[in-house]
C-alpha cells in the first residue's frame, strides 16, 4: 500500500516578479510555480518507470495538494488564471505541468494499469484464479479511482481518455477472440453483452463516476466497442467462416445482426476478397473446391447483404480465375447431374421455385420496375456509408446456377458440355436404362430452355429406341434359328449382340479408329445388321468398332495360397479390340505382333500396347526375342517362374471416353474457318476483334455449332491458319486471305 507524506511546497506567488528580466530569471520563475513544483515532486526519482505500485499514493498526494490549494488562501497559484473558475484554473495548471514533466511512456503506463485491472476483474468474474502479478490492490485501486476523478484526468477530453478507450477496446478484443475464435456453431454475442453489463460498466462507473457514464454516453460507446471487436475477430477468420457454411449458419446470422451496429460490411468484404485471392486462386486448389467455395460465398454474403452489391466485389476475382480454368464447365455440369456427388448444385437443379435462366436477374444494375423522375443511382461502394441492406437491388442477383452460368456469359458452353458427358454416359449404359437421364434432361430443360436441349433429347430417345429395336431383332433371330436346331436336336443359342443405334448428326463426334474384327465376331455383327436392315429398311448400320464392351469368360492361370498354379475361369469386360485380339488365340496358340497387325489392320505399336492387358492378367505370355511373339499362358509357364510381366504399359481393358473432344474441336474449327474465309472474301481484310464479333453474331444463331471462343483463343486459331498459308496477317494486325 502507498502512503502520502505531506511536505510544504516552497513556492513563490505568480504576482511576484523575477529579480532580473533575463532568460535565466524567467526560467527560475516558471520552475518555482506551485503547479510545476507539484509535478516535479510527483515524478521524484522517476519511480513510476520501475514500480507502478506507488502510483495510487502519488496520485493521492497530488489530489490532496490540489484540494489544499482550493481552500481559502491555500495557494498563490490561483493568481494565474487559466479559467474563469479558480479551481478549474489550478487543475488545468497542474495537469499541464504533469504533461510537461512526464516521460513519453507515462500514459502507456495507465493503459497497462487499466488492462491489468480489467483482466483481474474478468478472471474473478469467470471464477478463475489470478495467473499474473497483482499490480494494484483493491484498496489502491479505489484510491486511484478517486484521485483521477478529483484531478479531472478521466473526464471527456481528459488526458486518460485515450489510454482508457484503448484498454477497453484491446481487452474486450482479447476476451472476444478467446471465446469465439473458430467457433461457428453457436451464437455468443449475447454473452458479451452480459459481460459488458456485469463487469465492464460497473468497473467504469467506479472509474469515471455514475454521472459521467450517462453524460459521456459510455453505454452506447461500449455497445459499439463490443460489436466492433466481434466483427474484427470474424473478419480475420471470414474465409474459414465461409468454408464451413452451412455448419457456420448460426455464426453468419449473428454476424449479420452485429454488422447492423458497426456497418463494417466493406471491411468484411475486403478481407474475404484478399483471402480468396491468396488461398483459392492458385493451381494447388482443385476446380471443384473453388466452385464449392464460390457457392458458399454466394450463400453467406446473401445472408449478410441481400442486395448482392458486396457479393459482386468479393466474387469477381474468383469468377475471373474460374473462367481461365479449362475444366470449370465440366465440374459444374458434373455437380449438377451426378447423384452420387450430391452437393449444393445437385439440389439447386431440383429447386421447386427454380426459373429459366433467361428470366433470372443476374445484372444487379437491372431493376424490376422502370425508373421514374425521382430515380437516383446507388452510390459507389467506395463512397457508401451506412447500411448496405437499404440500397441496391433488393431482389438479389439471381440464383446460384445463374451466377455460375454468368461467369461465361452464355449457357451454350454448359449445354454442349452436358451433351459430351451425356454421350459417354449413355454409350456406357449396357442396360439401356435411361430413367435417370430423362429426369435430368427434364430438369435442365426448365433451366436452360427446351430448344437448348433438343439434341440431348434426341440422344436419349436413340438409346430408348435402341432397347426396343434390340428386343425385336433378338426375337427375329431366335425365330429363324429355331427351325434348324430343332432338326438337329439342339436348342437355339441366344443372340449375343446388343447395339446402341444413334443418329450421328445429333451426337458429338465419337472415337472412330476402325479395325477389322475377328471373323466370328464379324459374323455376329453382320447378322444383326441384316436383321436391322429388314426391320428399318432402307436404313443401314455403320459399326463403330472401337466403341463398346464385350463380356468374356476365359481360363487363366491363378496362384493358390500354397504357391501352386491352377486354371480358373474369370469374367472380363473389355473393349472390342481386346476381344478381337484374344479371339485369334482360339485359332492358334502363338501369334506375332506383325501377324495380329495384318489381321486387324492396326499398327504394331498399337497391338503391343493393347496386348499388355492380357499379359498383365496372365492370359497371354510375351515370348523373349524378336520378332515380338505372344503365346497363350499355361500352368507350365507359371511353374517355371516364366510369368514375368513383359508389358511396359498398363491397360485397363476399356477404351477411354467415347466422345473425341479433339475431333469435336477440329470439327468446330472447320465450321469457323469457313465463316472466316467467307468474311474475308467479301470484306477484304478485318481485325481480330471484328472477326470475333461477327462470329458471335452469325455462328451462334440457329447453328448446331456455337461460337464460344475468347478473342485469345480465336487469335491462336487465326495464327494457325496463317502458318497453314490460308490467311496472312499484316503489321497493322489486319487479317486477309493468303495470296499465292
Automatic annotation (TrEMBL):
GO terms for cellular component: anaphase-promoting complex. The keyword Nucleotide-binding does not apply. Residues 1-14 have a biased composition (Polar residues). Residues 1-20, 359-381 are annotated as: Disordered. It comes from the Eukaryota. GO terms for biological process: cell division; metaphase/anaphase transition of mitotic cell cycle; protein K11-linked ubiquitination; ubiquitin-dependent protein catabolic process. Keywords: Ubl conjugation pathway. Residues 403-615 form the Cullin family profile domain. InterPro entries: ANAPC2, ANAPC2_C, Cullin-like_AB, Cullin_homology, TPR_ANAPC2. Residues 360-371 have a biased composition (Acidic residues). The keyword Nucleotide-binding does not apply. PANTHER family: ANAPHASE-PROMOTING COMPLEX SUBUNIT 2. Belongs to the cullin family. This is Anaphase promoting complex APC subunit 2. It comes from Nitzschia inconspicua.
Amino acid at each position: 500500500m502507498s502512503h502520502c507524506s505531506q511536505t510544504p511546497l516552497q513556492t513563490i506567488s505568480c504576482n511576484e516578479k523575477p529579480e532580473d528580466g533575463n532568460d535565466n530569471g524567467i526560467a527560475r520563475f516558471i520552475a518555482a510555480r506551485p503547479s510545476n513544483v507539484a509535478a516535479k515532486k510527483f515524478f521524484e526519482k522517476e519511480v513510476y518507470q520501475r514500480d507502478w505500485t506507488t502510483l495510487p499514493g502519488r496520485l493521492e498526494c497530488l489530489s490532496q495538494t490540489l484540494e489544499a490549494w482550493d481552500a481559502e488562501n491555500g495557494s498563490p497559484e490561483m493568481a494565474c488564471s487559466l479559467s474563469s473558475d479558480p479551481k478549474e484554473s489550478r487543475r488545468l495548471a497542474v495537469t499541464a505541468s504533469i504533461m510537461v514533466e512526464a516521460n513519453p511512456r507515462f500514459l502507456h503506463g495507465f493503459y497497462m494499469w487499466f488492462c491489468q485491472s480489467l483482466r483481474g476483474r474478468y478472471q474473478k468474474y469467470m471464477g478463475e484464479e489470478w495467473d499474473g502479478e497483482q499490480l494494484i490492490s483493491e484498496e489502491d485501486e479505489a484510491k486511484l479511482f478517486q484521485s483521477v476523478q478529483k484531478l479531472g484526468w478521466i473526464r471527456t477530453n481528459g488526458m486518460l481518455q485515450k489510454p482508457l478507450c484503448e484498454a477497453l477496446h484491446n481487452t474486450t478484443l482479447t476476451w472476444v477472440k478467446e471465446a469465439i475464435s473458430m467457433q461457428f456453431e453457436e451464437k455468443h454475442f449475447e454473452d458479451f453483452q452480459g459481460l459488458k453489463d456485469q463487469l465492464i460498466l460497473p468497473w467504469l462507473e467506479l472509474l469515471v463516476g455514475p454521472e459521467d457514464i450517462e453524460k459521456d454516453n459510455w453505454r452506447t460507446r461500449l455497445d459499439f466497442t463490443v460489436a466492433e471487436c466481434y466483427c474484427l475477430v470474424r473478419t480475420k477468420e471470414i474465409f474459414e467462416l465461409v468454408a464451413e457454411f452451412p455448419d457456420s449458419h448460426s455464426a453468419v446470422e449473428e454476424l449479420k445482426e452485429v454488422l447492423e451496429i458497426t456497418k463494417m460490411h466493406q471491411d468484411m468484404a475486403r478481407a474475404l476478397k484478399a483471402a480468396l485471392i491468396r488461398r483459392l486462386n492458385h493451381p494447388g486448389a482443385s476446380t471443384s473446391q473453388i466452385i464449392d467455395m464460390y457457392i458458399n460465398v454466394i450463400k453467406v454474403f446473401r445472408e449478410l447483404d441481400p442486395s448482392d452489391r458486396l457479393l459482386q466485389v468479393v466474387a469477381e476475382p474468383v469468377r475471373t480465375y474460374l473462367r481461365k480454368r479449362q475444366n470449370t464447365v465440366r465440374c459444374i455440369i458434373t455437380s449438377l447431374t451426378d447423384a452420387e456427388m450430391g452437393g449444393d448444385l445437385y439440389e439447386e437443379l431440383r429447386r421447386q421455385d427454380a426459373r429459366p435462366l433467361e428470366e433470372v436477374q443476374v445484372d444487379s444494375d437491372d431493376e424490376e420496375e422502370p425508373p421514374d423522375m425521382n430515380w437516383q443511382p446507388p452510390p459507389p461502394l467506395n463512397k457508401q456509408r451506412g447500411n448496405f441492406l437499404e440500397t441496391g437491388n433488393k431482389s438479389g442477383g439471381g440464383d446460384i446456377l445463374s451466377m455460375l452460368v454468368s461467369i461465361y456469359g452464355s449457357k451454350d458452353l454448359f449445354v454442349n458440355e452436358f451433351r459430351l458427358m451425356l454421350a459417354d454416359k449413355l454409350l456406357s449404359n449396357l442396360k439401356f436404362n435411361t430413367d435417370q437421364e430423362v429426369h435430368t434432361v427434364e430438369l435442365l430443360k426448365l433451366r436452360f430452355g427446351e430448344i437448348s436441349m433438343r439434341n440431348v433429347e434426341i440422344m436419349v430417345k436413340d438409346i430408348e429406341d435402341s432397347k426396343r429395336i434390340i428386343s425385336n431383332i433378338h426375337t427375329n433371330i431366335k425365330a429363324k434359328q429355331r427351325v434348324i436346331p430343332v432338326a438337329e436336336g439342339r436348342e437355339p443359342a441366344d443372340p449375343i449382340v446388343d447395339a446402341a443405334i444413334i443418329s450421328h448428326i445429333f451426337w458429338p463426334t465419337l472415337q472412330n479408329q476402325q479395325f477389322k474384327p475377328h471373323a466370328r465376331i464379324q459374323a455376329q455383327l453382320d447378322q444383326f445388321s441384316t436383321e436391322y436392315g429388314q426391320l428399318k429398311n432402307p436404313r443401314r448400320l455403320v459399326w463403330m468398332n472401337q466403341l463398346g464392351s464385350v463380356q468374356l469368360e476365359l481360363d487363366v492361370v491363378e496362384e493358390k495360397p500354397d504357391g501352386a498354379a491352377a486354371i480358373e475361369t474369370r469374367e472380363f469386360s473389355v473393349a472390342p479390340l481386346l476381344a478381337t485380339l484374344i479371339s485369334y488365340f482360339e485359332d492358334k496358340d502363338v501369334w506375332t505382333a506383325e501377324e495380329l497387325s495384318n489381321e486387324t489392320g492396326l499398327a504394331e505399336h498399337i497391338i503391343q500396347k493393347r496386348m499388355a492387358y492380357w499379359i498383365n492378367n496372365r492370359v497371354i505370355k510375351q515370348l523373349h526375342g524378336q520378332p515380338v511373339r505372344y503365346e497363350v499362358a499355361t500352368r507350365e509357364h507359371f511353374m517355371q517362374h516364366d510369368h514375368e510381366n513383359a508389358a511396359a504399359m498398363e491397360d485397363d481393358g476399356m477404351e477411354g471416353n467415347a466422345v473425341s473432344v479433339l475431333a469435336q474441336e477440329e470439327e468446330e474449327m472447320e465450321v469457323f474457318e469457313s465463316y472466316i474465309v467467307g468474311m474475308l472474301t467479301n470484306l477484304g481484310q478485318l481485325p481480330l476483334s471484328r472477326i470475333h464479333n461477327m462470329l458471335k453474331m452469325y455462328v451462334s444463331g440457329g447453328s448446331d455449332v456455337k461460337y464460344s471462343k475468347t478473342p485469345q483463343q480465336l487469335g491462336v486459331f487465326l495464327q494457325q491458319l496463317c502458318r497453314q498459308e490460308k490467311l496472312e496477317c499484316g503489321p497493322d494486325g489486319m487479317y486477309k486471305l493468303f495470296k499465292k
